[in-house]
Amino acid sequence: MLYPLLRPALFGLDAETAHGLALLALKLSPFGRPAKPGGPLATRVAGIDFPNPVGMAAGFDKDGQAPDALLGLGFGFVEVGSITPLPQAGNPRPRLFRLAEDRAVINRMGFNNDGAEIAVSRLAPRHGRPGVIGINIGANKDSADRAADYATMARLMAPLATYLTVNVSSPNTPGLRALQDEGALADLLDAVLEARGLGGPPVFLKVAPDLEPADIEAIGRIAIDKALGALIVSNTTISRPPLKSAHAGETGGLSGAPLRDLAQQRLRDFRRVTGGAIPLVGVGGIATAEDAWARIRAGASLVQLYSAMVYAGPGIARVVTRGLERLMRRDGFASIAEAVGSE
Prior knowledge:
Elements: H1 3-11, H2 15-28, E1 43-45, E2 48-50, E3 54-56, H3 67-71, E4 77-83, E5 96-99, E6 104-107, H4 116-123, E7 132-137, H5 146-157, E8 163-167, H6 182-196, E9 203-207, H7 213-225, E10 230-233, E11 253-256, H8 260-274, E12 280-283, H9 289-297, E13 300-305, H10 307-312, H11 316-330, H12 336-339
Parallel strand pairs: 3-4, 3-13, 4-7, 7-8, 8-9, 9-10, 10-12, 12-13
Antiparallel strand pairs: 1-2, 5-6, 6-11
């Protein structure tokens, strides 16, 4: 309730400084009560029981500093990262821009993070606590063998993660998206799955929205062939729909409201090519319960948000989940799973 009063002050700071303060406030605040398991929005995906389908996307908590505090805001799950084997500073600042007129964000962060060793030291003590925590893994920018980086991260993070996300879709690490090519992706996933080990957490794959039809077909086939836990559709876009903000020309990945229609269409594309054989996680431009419901009806078993919290504040998860309960009752569905793909 305080966020509308605080927002002008936060927006007076550059976006990255404001983000750092928000993360610090979460770390210092007492944890709220996480969503209760077994509620009306509970759903099971990839063998994991989610108390509700609304998650915090990767990028907000890159280093696993405050996952339990985020769960306490009402998110059904939290994805931390992207984390790389070695620490890296990322791209030069400024590299994060609010496009307030468009309710959007452009970032070119470049996988800035504290590295695997520090992430493990933060996440290991919370292991065994309730709550679904995904760990999003990446490769170092200057790595000579990126597939080996992903395998290393899978091995290190598998004991600490409810699920692992292979992120090959960030536009801010040169050459990374080339790992979405069919041959490279199959080899990469084989390395990750082997490193994760038998009985390890399910592996999700996060893809870009800027894909050609042939790429979508190939990724869908590979995801099914490798028995992945889910596809996360999608990351930020390098495309530029009409924008009003003075920051519209900044390079990097665009997220927020202008990504909504593109991400929705990509979700439908992946639903079509996979025929519902693999769960989908809808991300991109989700800001309201109606947005989340539309993504679920289009085929998403789960949804994630991040940029919308910049504009709506930390109460957004509870607002969206309450709205989803209302919409589910309105449309006569007894569960989220029943509604998936029902459009």
